Amino acid sequence: MSVAKKEYKRITTKTLVDMKKKGEKISMLTAYDFTMAKIVDSAGIDVILVGDSASNVMAGHETTLPITLDQMIYHAASVVRAIQRSLVVVDLPFGSYQSDPKEAPRSAIRIMKESGAHAVKLEGGKEIKESIKRILNAGIPVMGHLGLTPQSIYKFGTYTVRAKEEEEAEKLKEDALLLEKAGCFAVVLEKVPAKLAKEVAESLTIPIIGIGAGNGVDGQVLVTHDMIGMTHEFHPRFLRRYLDLYSEMTTAFQRYSTDVKRGDFPNDSEQY
Ligand code: KIV
To answer: Which CATH number covers residue 221?
Structure first.
């Protein structure tokens, strides 16, 4: 008897734009490794972001700045090996596109070639327009990222909500339009007022994926380790925790340690 193979319809950048047209919300989560990506993909999440938040979550750095292009490629390749359906978007790390627009396509091409990912994400608007154009000219889909852009944390000086003032809100709207016109297939809006995010989402034809940007946008993204409660010292208002894995894992590790020390593990059925 042959076992019917499950068919997965892959998510593409076009799927996301079509979802926006149909008013269907887009789900996006981060993953940095094979095992997590397999679970996220099989749960039916539309987009997996190999975020440079790996710098914090995986490597324990205070900011996203230290992660390198080689490290991002390692994470991305691990994720790509796991997925059957989700679209995989990879962050171009700090320093791989800002200083020289010619370097941007070189960095993006390395990500696509060496990891097998489907698109890249860059932080910024007008100031990186040339880099975005060159990457798109190389045939690589680009997701934008506006609002709180963590690679510029030392310029902002704080992780508080962006674009609360009129001037910054106007610049954000102009940048969002510029990204759409340049050819980006979607834009992440991070930590901006919900009203502004809704206005941006309504004025563009490409999807706006929010994180701390309210419910008037076309989709949502969270850092997986935060939403499953593996991290537990980070409590922004926008974060909904679906699990408390920090506590559950701590209890499991303590039980294991107790069992080992008591000589209860392994038992007769757990040995050869
Ligand atoms: O790196 C990341 O995880 C991100 C999300 C927070 C959008 O850019």
So the answer is: 3.20.20.60
